[in-house]
């Protein structure tokens, strides 16, 4: 198979890599490739930083390996190849009365990517992480394929779920789907006047799905104001998909300047009446709202953006207040700032979630944004929290053991699975995640 040279980037467009890309179309082709010349596997590269980059090396593009291998309509057990996207799974299974139990914020994420990052969704407080619904997976290394399950190979399973592809190439997975009442979501939207009201509303919510948008530019009594969305899947057929749009080129930085963002946020808050409102939305619109604007990352211009995402443990949610104060006074926040409640569920040693609150904020790529993101990371660590490696572009390897106490055990198992380091990526090298110390 002939490799194609290209300049690749993470979704944030800050970090880049010169790579040779191989794109197999069949499992047999992939198996021959890995046996001869193992390399990290990548999907649609929706990780924001360098988790799917391999500077000066090769990567295996899995996106053509996107077939449904088997499906039991009685039990909802589905086996698919790792290149299948979550948007395609939802569109395929919902009309049959089933849906993926956990959906990330974009339908462009692949099954392999969801496993490698043990992604979470708007229902993590009830459903846990994606990896907790993986029944088994086929893992491909230089010595061939093997079945990995939580019962028979628990250590390897836990190092693979959330393991950033370091134990081998994820070829396919058996997933346990959940019943789906229909193709629509009933959404209750309410304005929140500040962070205290937000946290109280999350605590009181009994909705299956919940997510908050925060005006990260607001200060004073309005600090942390925003919109809380609570959703339930309901019966009904979705209307034909609306028109999607594309950002054709990197846009000028004026669009994400502080005055523009403050104006946008004020208008966006007012789209929800003071008394709140109920809406019915198609599944894809609710779960993947940004997918209707293709290449939306170009809105941040040629220099790209950083996303800071942390989780703060239960009992430490008050640390959100000084974080939001620093973000607001910096004038660097974009309109994309999200708050979610997480439960304790996590499938892997390096999985991000913990019971508490997670905050995600985008910053245009500027030197002052880098300094702010690192300050926020330290604040999260001091509160007992951690950052999401799927979003990271800036972290320090010295913080990994404090955020991820099983990092040493993870490194040991990964070294056993891949002793020659074939599957290392830029992020793994940058953060020294395979160093047992």
Automatic annotation (TrEMBL):
SUPFAM superfamilies assigned: FAD-binding/transporter-associated domain-like
Keywords attached to this entry: FAD, Flavoprotein
Flavoprotein listed as a keyword: yes
Alphabetical list of Pfam families matching this protein: FAD_binding_4
GO MF assignments: FAD binding; oxidoreductase activity, acting on the CH-OH group of donors, oxygen as acceptor
Name of this protein: FAD-linked oxidase
Organism: Brevirhabdus pacifica
Upper lineage: Bacteria, Pseudomonadati, Pseudomonadota, Alphaproteobacteria, Rhodobacterales
